[in-house]
Amino acid sequence: MIKNLKTNHFTLVLSGGGALGIAHLGVIHDLEKYNLTPSEIIGTSMGGIIGACMAIGMHESDIYKQIIDFTSVSKWMKFSFSGNAIVDNSKIETIFHTLFGNKKMSETKIPLKLICTNIITGEKRIFSEKDDVTIKDAVLASMAIPGIFTEHTIDGEIYADGFLCENLGILQATYDTVLAVDVLGRYAFEKELPDNFFKTANVLEMFERSMRLLIYNQTQSNLIQSKKNIILIEPKTSTYSTFQFHKHEALRTLGLGLLS
After folding, report:
1. Distance separating alpha carbons of residues 136 and 94, to the nearest angstrom
2. Tens of pLDDT, residues 167-217
């Protein structure tokens, strides 16, 4: 695997998955360890946030520090009392402005593509260096989980999370060799159904399991369509929730050692 990446230009694809996406950092750590730099980065949702940080030149250790800060809910959580979502994105937007400033998608050190969904039409939208859009805006659009985070408007169009159309953006890859990290892959599911004492917990776990299955099947269909040489990494995320950011250390460890 490593030899293949060293001898070819490759696209790095990072999936969405909420807190599970912290596992991407383990893989990025190993890429740095082997002095492997992608020629292109594609990200969706959490994978888009991490991918954007990497694209502007941040090292994995610096990205991880930002993730640790993010586990302090008060730094980004602001309840919305109107509109269609629970969270008002104003605090998150301030964080992204600190990270990316007013840099445009064309100003990254590594070409970047971020996947979003037009929440009105359902159409897929890929923001790239061809668009006169700030990284901050594209990231806010890509991570806007409907009902959780406020949808984001760019040039009059309303966007939400890219997982609705392509959670693992392999179909957008420019290069023939693709390193794809899918935190909602085949190891994202428990082998047994939930059996908690409280029914509410079971219902919530069943809902999350259903969403993971929908996304997993979407990705499997895209893998069949792709003609690229795809190196697929699927961290074992089944025992973690998409909202467990406080377990960042364990989640990061899930991505370590998977390149060898």
Report:
1. 9
2. 999 999 999 999 999 999 999 987 777 566 565 667 777 788 889 999 999
Nearest to 153 by CA among 141, 166, 165: 141
Element (H, E) at 12: strand 10-14
* Cα 147 versus chain centre, distance: 18
Q: Identify the DSSP state of 158.
A: E
Question: pLDDT tens digits for 222-236?
Answer: 999 999 999 999 999
CA-wise closest residue to 105 among 63, 62, 136, 142: 136
pLDDT above 90: residue 75: no
Element (H, E) at 10: strand 10-14
Residue with tokens 């100003």: 107
Q: For 19-38, how does the pLDDT look when each residue is reduced to its tens digit (9 = 90+)?
A: 999 999 999 999 999 999 99
Q: SS3 for 144?
A: coil
Task: Give the per-residue pLDDT at 249.
Answer: 96
248, 71 Cβ separation under 8 angstroms: yes
- Which tokens hold the place of 221? 């269909």
Q: Contact, 100 vs 52, CB < 8 A?
A: yes
Cα separations (Å) of 225 from 14, 172, 218, 229?
Answer: 18, 12, 11, 12
Residue 45 backbone zone (phi > 0: left; psi -120 to 50: alpha; other: beta) = left
Sign of CA dihedral 83, 203, 75, 102: negative
